[in-house]
């Protein structure tokens, strides 16, 4: 008969785990349920040298799916033999296990279950299990580890296992099992933390939702704006079809606007916080909820801005490859020949392009630096001062370079009223409102700090000695420029 365990649970999975010989002196670990999770867990426990006994409603049906070293038996038998029992059945089936209640009394039950959707209010599955089995010590854990990770081993997934329980003894025994299987237990405290642990694998990028919606909304706004100016208006007024601009030209005009406004949104909450601190005269008071949330989402806003800027760079590089660009070039050359212009070089145009491209490249380079230092592994390798220098000082430089790029791009149009082709102002006008506010706000905040520093240096020189800057006053007002 073919060995069913030779078939991996998932394509590409390890066909066989080397199970070390179970040590009779090791605790017997029970698993109730014979599903995906149970099979992966059994293999990992056997590999860690435990004795494994699996409890099923129909053991004969599933025995072939488990390694030979594991004993597959009835739920009652498994519960009686084991010291620690993993409950690998869905929470709605927990009540069907009451038949084995006497056998589980005084033992440790590990609830691995997950809910279907995040829940803000309890009771959690683990708390309900604890209600069903008051004589057992329930530990919540392993629900954040997928059957796939268990099958492949901790090297191929998240190594952390979040645990909580009201019984320290039970939690310690499960921690030991975690360690032996190669996972890293994270103690989350009492069983009341189980709802939070159950919600963990159900979250879908909660901190990214607002920044992503914001980027999408900004992009949509600028896209419609550019569409109205550059495509719809020529069609309505001159019956000129410019619909070919929709997939690349209009997208490429909208991306940098979204990127710049998103970047401004990274720095505006810090300025709001600084202004609030200055008005209150102290930094030791909580910010309003909306500002708190905005401040904590700055990294995501910055990364969304970086994505838009990087896409803009790729789109821009692809512009000359298009057929439309080639036709336009040939037509321009033909017109030039017809009008007998030998040299069409315009110094102002040349300089404008050189400058706006170099500002754009500098902005993208600085943004890449910000994105790299926001990675936890890189952020962990630099100290706080270095991090704040990159994220704050270089960040403002990136904002200034991107603003200059936009201004230089719109240079000729900004000063030439004949370029206003539509009643809407060119895109860079709405694009520059927030970045300009952020840059001016920063300058306004830095100016008094710089003046105070200069005054202190002068006082020091006048006193005939070189003084070091006094440490920040305890009201924290020195720190506002670092927010
Ligand atoms: N799969 C995964 O990646 C993960 C799963 N989990 C959790 O592990 C638990 C099991 O998941 P999984 O193994 O995928 O599920 P499966 O559907 O594959 O297995 C569930 C098992 O429950 C047993 N069971 C016991 N009583 C009943 C009953 N009354 N009705 C139906 N089945 C019953 C069955 O075994 P038998 O017929 O032998 O009694 C069945 O094999 C769930 O709570 C899940 O949330 C947590 C993290 C990851
Ligand atoms: Fe650009």
From TrEMBL:
Its cofactor is FAD; heme b. Residues 29-115 form the Pyrroline-5-carboxylate reductase catalytic N-terminal domain. It is found in: Endosome membrane. It catalyses: 2 Fe(2+) + NADP(+) + H(+) = 2 Fe(3+) + NADPH; 2 Cu(+) + NADP(+) + H(+) = 2 Cu(2+) + NADPH. Residues 1-23 are annotated as: Disordered. Its main location: membrane. It is a multi-pass membrane protein. The lineage of its organism: Eukaryota, Metazoa, Chordata, Craniata, Vertebrata. This is STEAP3 metalloreductase. Keywords: Copper, Endosome, FAD, Flavoprotein, Ion transport, Iron, Iron transport, Membrane, Metal-binding, Oxidoreductase, Transmembrane, Transmembrane helix, Transport.
